[in-house]
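Journal club prep, notes for RB
We'll compare a predicted complex against what the paper describes. Inputs for the NAP case:
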Amino acid sequence: MFDLHGRTALVTGSRGGIGRAVAVALARAGADLVLHGRTDDLDDVEKDVRRVGGQARRWIFDLADTTAIPEAAAVLPEIDILVNNAGIIRRAPAAEHTFHDWRSVLDVNLDAVFQLSRAIGVRMLARRRGKIISVASMLSFQGGVQVPGYTAAKHGIAGLTKALACEWAAEGVQVNAVAPGYITTDNTAALQADPVREPEIRSRIPAGRWGRPDDVAGAVVFLASPASDYVNGHVLAVDGGWLAR
Ligand code: NAP
């Protein structure tokens, strides 16, 4: 049910914390990988993927260039599993959050996801097979603290996931999302280092600890595999119980 041999998976932002763990977990389940980065700095993750027996190709592209995505994606091989993982965050109170920062976050975290899901989704629809998994957030459900652009984008991911799932479920393409809680990566480096916020966050997590990238990877493997063939439009929280609180 969880076997991914014969499948090709593209993980955007595969150099980063969650992206790397997801790429390695998919390879361990048998998938061939297309690793993606803004730059070609992918040697380490490629080694990790090969160590667990996976094949790895590379796709280098800056997802901030949203209008160029359809053309850039045309060079990709047939993708069976698309993981929209790449993302950025800009922290500032709404009154000081510049429109430039807002735009940057919306471009990478939402517009690029729509563009890439459509470019690859059309090809999945033609083959009547595919899995699209986007990385959402607790801030797909909650307002968050001084990250208005990020919160808007991640709420958008939850909506887009459901919208695409409704249209494509009958065509054999499952569209879902994972919503990580607080995970120890570069994305949360400022929070992990904050002597006030860090203990506040940890004490609110029922599991009593921050998540690790591998915690998210297992949920992505599930949503990428035949085990989830009847799961459509779901946003799966992987949060140590944060939302249950
Ligand atoms: P990360 O370590 O900072 O990884 C982010 C990845 O996105 C990096 O590989 C980065 O590439 C890539 N990226 C950023 N902008 C890009 C662009 N313009 N073009 C191409 N690639 C780009 O952070 P992470 O925590 O693993 O984040 C992965 C996803 O999880 C994001 O969508 C994030 O919002 C989401 N998430 C994280 C948490 C958490 O607690 N960490 C919680 C909820 C959701 P470079 O290395 O080249 O910058």
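Talking point for the session: The chain has a mean pLDDT of 98.
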